[in-house]
Amino acid sequence: MNDHELWRELGQQLRVDSVRSSSAAGSGHPTSSMSAADLMAVLMAEHLRYDFDRPDDPRNDHLIFSKGHASPLLYAMYRAAGAISDDEMLTFRDFGSRLEGHPTPVLPWVDVATGSLGQGLPISVGVAYAGRYLDRLGYRVWCLTGDSEMAEGSMWEAFEAAGHHGLDNLTAIVDVNRLGQTGETMHGWDLDAYARRIGAFGWHTIEIDGHDVTAVDSALSEAASTEGRPTAILARTEKGHGVAAVANVNGAHGKPVPDEEAAIAELGGRRDLRIAVAKPTGDERPHDFPTAGELSLPAYETGGKEATRKAYGDALVALGNARADVVAIDGEVGNSTHSEEFAKAHPDRFVQAYIAEQMLVSYAVGFQVRGWRPFAATFAAFLARAYDFVRMAAVSRANLILAGSHAGVSIGEDGPSQMALEDLAAFRAVHGSTVLYPSDPNQTAALMGEAVDRDGIIFIRTTREKTPVLYAPDEAFPIGGSRVVRGTDADQVTLVGAGITLHEALKAAEALAEEGIAARVIDLYSLKPIDADTLLAAGRETGAIITVEDHFPEGGLGDAVLDVFAEERDAPPIRKLAVRIMPGSGTPAEQLAAAGIDSAHIAAAARELAGTRTAAATT
Amino acid sequence: MNDHELWRELGQQLRVDSVRSSSAAGSGHPTSSMSAADLMAVLMAEHLRYDFDRPDDPRNDHLIFSKGHASPLLYAMYRAAGAISDDEMLTFRDFGSRLEGHPTPVLPWVDVATGSLGQGLPISVGVAYAGRYLDRLGYRVWCLTGDSEMAEGSMWEAFEAAGHHGLDNLTAIVDVNRLGQTGETMHGWDLDAYARRIGAFGWHTIEIDGHDVTAVDSALSEAASTEGRPTAILARTEKGHGVAAVANVNGAHGKPVPDEEAAIAELGGRRDLRIAVAKPTGDERPHDFPTAGELSLPAYETGGKEATRKAYGDALVALGNARADVVAIDGEVGNSTHSEEFAKAHPDRFVQAYIAEQMLVSYAVGFQVRGWRPFAATFAAFLARAYDFVRMAAVSRANLILAGSHAGVSIGEDGPSQMALEDLAAFRAVHGSTVLYPSDPNQTAALMGEAVDRDGIIFIRTTREKTPVLYAPDEAFPIGGSRVVRGTDADQVTLVGAGITLHEALKAAEALAEEGIAARVIDLYSLKPIDADTLLAAGRETGAIITVEDHFPEGGLGDAVLDVFAEERDAPPIRKLAVRIMPGSGTPAEQLAAAGIDSAHIAAAARELAGTRTAAATT
Q1: Choosing from A357, A450, A465, A549, which is the catalytic residue?
Q2: Chain A contact for B367, CB < 8 A?
Q3: B405-429 as b/e, with b when 16 or more CB fall inside 10 Å?
Q4: DSSP summary character for residue B407
Q5: Cβ separation of A414 and B115 shorter than 8 Å?
Q6: ipTM score here?
């Protein structure tokens, strides 16, 4: 069998196996797999450099299925590579199987979860950027994309970023099979339409018949040898190619072929080709950035004032000094988030994502694929733009830190478009997430030191305004902890705040003290995980709790506290102070007052609840 | 003064006023306003058709500042048009002023809030689509965009959609002032780079000097007379133009000019030009789609089975039959969400957004600007892609319905990428939102009948699986209500579910009844607003509550219930059953069991809590 025959046979095997696994599962996307089978056959037989026995080899190429629903094809490739058995392939979509409906890193050869379209390519750009500018290794990134997902704006953020950085180590293989889930795509088989667009973004484009294995091989070679810009291979293919009942037929998306045996026969029957995928060669090792000794976090003098967002930037520089793996990305607001401090100190490890938040998070996801430790920052409000990417990053078991500045109404005059008021709810709901909301610059630095080694999606919410420095530089603030900033055994009410509202709570406690009301104040800097013990004790000991948050009432700090007391009998009354209006413009102080979360409102609520408890206790 | 002199003078006046208002405020974006002043001067003097006394005139043009931070320019235009006084202009960014830091519809001439970049153009596409295909009126949509925001993928979703629909009533005026917040944009003054990209998406492009008023006038005329495709005017401008201290100077973003008086003098001093903006002419009226009589919602036979997503589609058809203002949009999954029923019944009022969820929501926002009643659907998981648009839609005081299908682990084999498990948290946190999660097809239809007349952002979560029909077709389900599906005075525990988990709760209650444990079951189909009275009564009467949700534990149904009891003394223990694992593939039943939210887990929790209460009561 010559190469061309092998490629054709392998393509048919991948089709047969896609039919078999999806028929065994009773669901899945065989037709979306069959269109791309020849593309992937030639890729794995000739161009991919990957050691399936050593998926962590830094020299490995990366293959990312942006069209994650073509998972039957990916798993068929794994079988052909000898990475999984035929039996395991047929566990596709079974409960407990590693072969999920859409690929996830439960499989060691999958870098990131896909299945929410338009994410694989942006993340591929992140990996390719890491290859070129961080690892400085010769690996290539091959990204199989669908044509339907070209409608996603995130794809164009990715095309723009890759073109801008000249990532010639990246190839997008676009499977133009014409048909989406419900009908024809916007451009059908008009390859030129895609080439014009992608070419305009600075990519080299190649148009081919995606079932002509010779053309596929040439295109992949051309992509690999193109210098200075990424390549997109626009492959005209047929959805369901090879099986007349489903080939180029609308309505055959996302379901097994109607007659498995007939389809396999039409494809020439089962095959058991094994492909020895080429392994990476050479003794390249990832680049190691120079560091400057032990971690020395910034220190702020107690009694002074500083914004936690500034402490974020300063701590990031310190982490970058001490650790070669720390990388920062910003959404073109680095002088607001204070990423710019890092950009100045470590320009080689800073990436400007411009105003493209989906790409911002995708860089982070891509970098952590290769073991880098990314910190991505923008206004917390604008992280909402990338919420689907964050959700999927959790499915990817990604480890990354997202910093959102300018939280809440306390930003002042800019108004609601710039105010994060839903972010705590959104990030708390992400699986396995950590949600931090520091109240003080030294605490911010300490938490950055903790976050850098923690797994999962970590969100750090920072404040625009300068706030008093409460804590000494050497104090410890473990994630999952809290701090009783003020309190005695005689407290009649507990005030729980974080960030800007902690300072309002402290002012309220002072005012209350003058009236003879003793208020405990808890700094709940870690919302998830949460320090249940301290809160439960405060509930028992003070009999009433007031939570205060610069956030809408749902899903934020208040709800996190309520959750702690959910199953308690004799739980104290808990009043949630939160932003219940749509804010406009105004000074930070006017905004806090209008939203009912300033010290005066806190004190008023405390008077009411502390009073009630005393009354109840005396009756 | 001839036209050209007037335009130039008006441009200077808009600059002077941008300087004055931002200096008065002590913050704001004068330099981003000054770059676009000549563009807007010529537009308002010659091309805009708008009656400031009748902002609701359907024949009015629409002017949308996608670069919302140029609000000083917009407000200066309002002053020049005589819509606001000089005094009011100087209230810019004051607490309580209509002139917020970024424009919002608190002002009658503002269609939508902007300030999160990359949103104004997609929404402009929605308005232009409405003009062409729904209203069928001759109004034009003028959208002022920045150059920095070209990095946002949502802009390219918009370019693609407008090009696809040939919206020649839309003009994007791109203010290419080269400088972003922290530095130069990716393309600087390379107008060709923008023209290549936008042109590739099917737009007509014109490149001009944005300070040459003659060129601006010609370009606007050419845009208005271009047929068959939208036009983008790429205007090379200078940020801070006219004031040497800030003109084309990096670091002058987002702050008042350093010396107000000097700047005004340099610009030639204050002016008081009044422009009589041309009003729309003619007696065109919006198109009226034919309807077919009274609303007749679909009916499903009790005892049968049907999926709530199917009921969504059926009810949508019925609403479309009865009401001419109902419009539907789908993200290329209409056979999953069941928007396709509407597409077939009312093709002229259906829009295919393809897989571009930001554009999906933008169509809805744009349509409601013109009084249409949009229902936009995709998988609930993928609405996360548009979360920033939803957040901003709330700032826009938009009225629209978002339907998210395929909620939770119960979708089965497709795996976590397709499962909405954070959506309830995300949507509950949106200001003024309504969150519905129907458990039954007749209830779904009834809620659709309620939702169609309700203000704000309404989210309807539907279920993939067919579930038993519990309710008769004529039953009322008010928003903000709940339903006690099962219960007596002797209940020992309350089970609260919605959607798929209500059915699991009912199965659990049956099993418990056989063991002699009486469980009340509440269908909490309206999560926000919530029926506090029914829940409080259940807490008092049964002494223990178990919430069950096909959603991660934070911010969803359980937290909504906790909030009801927050301030209660003697609140019952509340146990939240929710998805606490990262799911994989498996059947719906396997998924519900693995997540601990199936009937067996509910019954187990009920035995524990009901038992404890009895024990506590007897001691």
Answers
A1: A357
A2: no
A3: bbbbbbbbbbbbbbbbbbbbbbbbb
A4: B
A5: yes
A6: 0.97
